Every structure is written in structure tokens, then in C-alpha cells.
Amino acid sequence: MRPFWIEQALFNDGDLAPALQGEHSADVCIVGGGFTGLWTAIQAKLKAPALDIVIIESDLCGAGASGRNGGCLLTWSAKFLTLRRLFGEHEAVRLVKASEAAVQHIADFCAAHGIDAELRQDGTLYTATSQAQIGTLDPMMQALEARGIHSYRTLPPEEVARRSGSARNLAGVYSPIAATVHPGKLVRGLRRVALAMGIRIHERTPMLDFSTDHPVVVRTPTGSVRAKKLVLAMNAWMASTFPQFERTIAIVSSDMVITERCPELLQQIGLTDGVSVLDSRTFVYYYRRTVDGRIMLGKGGNTFAWGGRMAKVFDERSPYEAELTQALHSFFPALRETPITASWNGPSDRSVTGFPFFGKLDGAPHIYYGFGYSGNGVGPTYMGGQILSSLVLDQDNEWTRSPITNGPLGHFPPEPVRYVGSIVVRNAIRRKELAEDENRQPWLVDRMLSKLANAAGKADKA
Fold first, then answer.
1. Which H or E run contains 217?
2. CA pair distance 197, 45, nearest whole angstrom
3. DSSP letters along 384-408, please?
4. What digits encode the pLDDT tens for the residues 335-394?
5. Dihedral (Cα; 313, 315, 320, 322), 10-degree rounding
6. With 90 as the cut, is the pLDDT of residue 458 above it?
């Protein structure tokens, strides 16, 4: 089955780029036609119009995470404390500012190229749905304010309930620097623009293997590409393709449901714009209204894959549909009679740090990679395009000098420890947060185990 967003996008843009046939050559070959691959190709072409670029995609552009996420275009500002710990003060400030600028860059690009991605810059609201969550974002906000990069403001509880449409949100902070998009329409729009720029795209063209010679030769079932530079933009699929990356990410699902259209009902409960709402759990509940008057609600941290391999369930309806529907109704009791149109899930490439990493494959100066967006890729993939296009063009700039291009900053334990540990920690988080929902003191062991997953959160918390 196709997830809801990409299925909708294909109604208006269902043409299929031809599979690669025969032997071809290019300056740059990009493997992966999602946000990272497309932004890299587009930004490289804008900087060097004569560059000959070919993209090969194993399925359809956007069929992976790019077409099945929640469409929340967020920044890295809420993760400043982690950025500072990883990269130092100066680079952390720069990355926060770059992530905020990416929101406007994407909006401007869509406007300039006529991409109707249903992009709305209505900000984001981080909320507390239990007493234990109230105030947990204060250290992050204080650190941002001290450095003059503070876009958040605390809202009165009644305004939080009104803006979020739900009395379940007890407190919250709001930032105007965020947006929501229709991810399927955005990725297919980027594909259209890339084709118009002269970038060659071949869908239904999986990479079988490649040589590391210079130039590289990428083999596909019915052809090959000889290229001076190679970019691997496969995201979650990197772990199962390259053994050296198997332990750099954990493949975990993010699951979503979306309702039938109910614009009048949403108007009544106060959800009138495109603000994204995220609570302060480790594996957050997130939701937002769509342009056509639906509610989409999702939650990460559900299904874990063994050994970095793709699980069959990632291409099916969410096995957590009932739980997500129950959560939807707890936020919005008025929607109990509104049918669920679709549910889906998909693989998220969660790194040890919660941030993507980039580098040169095995030190080869002409083969690049970038992945590990950890469930927050809609905006940061634009930055991934800035990084990878700079590397491809051998530029000396703030992106190629950034420590984020030094490869993975940590590894998960080997199997079966990683898989068993993931389940143990996930279940501890669930018990801890259920206790907090019920205003009970969580077990000490659950509190300790939950801290092991701090990187999975959307924001740094006390």
C-alpha cells in the first residue's frame, strides 16, 4: 500500500520516470530520490548549472520517509543543548540559525517554482500533557535566550488549549519559526523542478552495487551509470546496504492516522490554522490540521527493526492504529464519530545523537553520504542538500568545515543487545509516561532506563 500523502500526491502527478536502460555517464550520480537526494541535486545544479546529474530511485521519488512523515517542518532550536554538547558553542548557534533559515528557504523555493505543497508557516507549539512535563523545556529556552536566538514564548494555559484545540494540553511554548507541509506534494514538486532543470531521474531503478574506482560505476538491473562523484542518499536503507553503518542507526517506526475531512468540527474546537503541536514525551504525540480539514496524529518509537533490516510492516497499515485512534479521541473527544481515512507507518533512521551525519564513504574523496535524520527530516534535509552539494562541488565553506561532516558520532550495541535493549527502554518509557499521565510517581528503574532515549525526543528537556 502507498501511504496517504504519497497516494494523494500521485493523483495529480502520477507519471513515472523511465527505469535506467543501458550504459550512461554523468558528473554526479545520486542514489535515492527523496528529500535529501532531490535537495542535493537541485542545490548543486543551482550552484553549477553545467553539472550533469542523474538520480536513481529504487521505487518512486518520495516512496520512502519523504512521502510518509507527518509533514512537520521543524528546526533544531529545541535541541540546542545537545548541539552544543556535540559540536561546541559556535557551531551549535550556527546550526540552529541555519535550521531556522531552512524553513524560509523551503517556503521561498516552493513559491518561486509553483510547488503547491500546502505549506503554512503557522509555527509550532510544544506542550505538556501531564504535570510532570510542565517546565521541562525551561533550560533549553534559557540557553537560547542567553545567546539571542530565542524564538519561543510561553503561552498562558488557556491560550495553549485554544491554539492546540485540546484541553489535554496543560501548558506550552510557541515558536513562529516552523511550518507544516503536505510531504507527498513537496517531494513530487521537487521532482518536477529537478526534471525541469535538466536533472535526469530514473525511478524503479534500484542500485545493485557500485565500484569505488574513480570514476565510480553504479550497476542497476538493466543498466549502469559511470560518474565522477557518487552521493548515497538512501537514509534508513543505508544500514542494510552497508555493514559499516548497521550500528550507526536504529530503524524504528513512526506511525500515523488521518481522519476524514471535518473542517466545520475543527473550526469549532479551535484548530483553524497549520500549527504543529507536539507534546513533551520522549516519543512524542504530534498532530496538525491539513489544508482540506483533516487531523493527522502520529507517534514515533513503536516498531523496531532487527539488525537495521527493513521490516515488512513498514509498508502496511499501522499495527498501532487502534492506540493512535484512542489517543486522537483523548485529545479531541468531539472527533469520536469522525472516521479514520488511513493509517500508515514507515522507517525512521534514528542515530545515537538524534542528528544526521555526513561524510565520505570509507574515506573515498568522491563518494559521499548523509542520513540519520531521526524523525525530523523535512526541514533538515534542505540542510543536507546544502552540505552534500558543497561536498560534491569541492567547496570550502562553513558546511564542508562543519564537524557534522565527520561521520557518525556513536554506535548502538550489536544485536541482539540493540534490539532487546530498544524494546526494554521503549517499554520503560511507556510505563513512566503512563504513570505521569495518571499523576503517579514512576518506578526508579523506568526513570533511569528512559534517560537512555533522551536523544529520541524532539526537544532537550530537564
1. strand 216-220
2. 8
3. HHHHHHHHHTT--STTTTSGGGS--
4. 999 999 999 998 999 999 999 999 999 889 999 999 999 999 999 999 999 999 999 999
5. -130
6. no
Query: Which 3 state secondary structure label does DSSP give 345?
Result: strand
pLDDT band at 12 (very low <50, low <70, confident <90, very high): confident
Alpha-carbon 387 to chain mean position: 16
End-to-end alpha-carbon separation of the chain, Å? 40
Give CA–CA dist 63/344, Å, rounded.
Answer: 12
Cell numbers describing residue 167: 484541553
Q: Are 386 and 398 in contact (CB under 8 A)?
A: no
Cell of 386: 546544502
Query: Contact, 54 vs 194, CB < 8 A?
Result: no
Measured CA to CA, the distance from residue 447 to residue 136 in angstroms comes to 15
Determine which helix (DSSP H) or strand (DSSP E) holds 25, and give its type and residue range: strand 22-31
Distances (CA, A) of 418 to 429, 432, 447: 16, 21, 19
Calculate mean pLDDT across residues 245-250. Answer: 95
Distance, in Å, from the CA atom of 390 to the CA atom of 44, rounded to the nearest integer, reads 7
The residue type at 316: E
For all residues of the chain together, what is the average pLDDT?
96
Extract the C-alpha cell encoding 354.
Answer: 538524534
* DSSP character string of 48-94: -TT--EEEE-SS-TTSSGGGTS--EE--SGGGHHHHHHHH-HHHHHH
pLDDT digits (tens, 9 = 90+) for 34-87: 999 999 999 999 999 999 999 999 999 999 999 999 999 999 999 999 999 999
Measure Cα distances from 297 to 82, 150, 339, 350, 401 in Å.
Answer: 26, 27, 13, 20, 38
- As a dihedral over the C-alpha atoms of residue 277, residue 300, residue 140, residue 447, rounded to 10 degrees, the angle is 120
Give the global pTM: 0.97
At 323, the amino acid letter reads: E
List all residues 6 or more positions away from 14 whose beta carbon is below 8 Å from its beta carbon: none
Q: Are 71 and 295 in contact (CB under 8 A)?
A: no
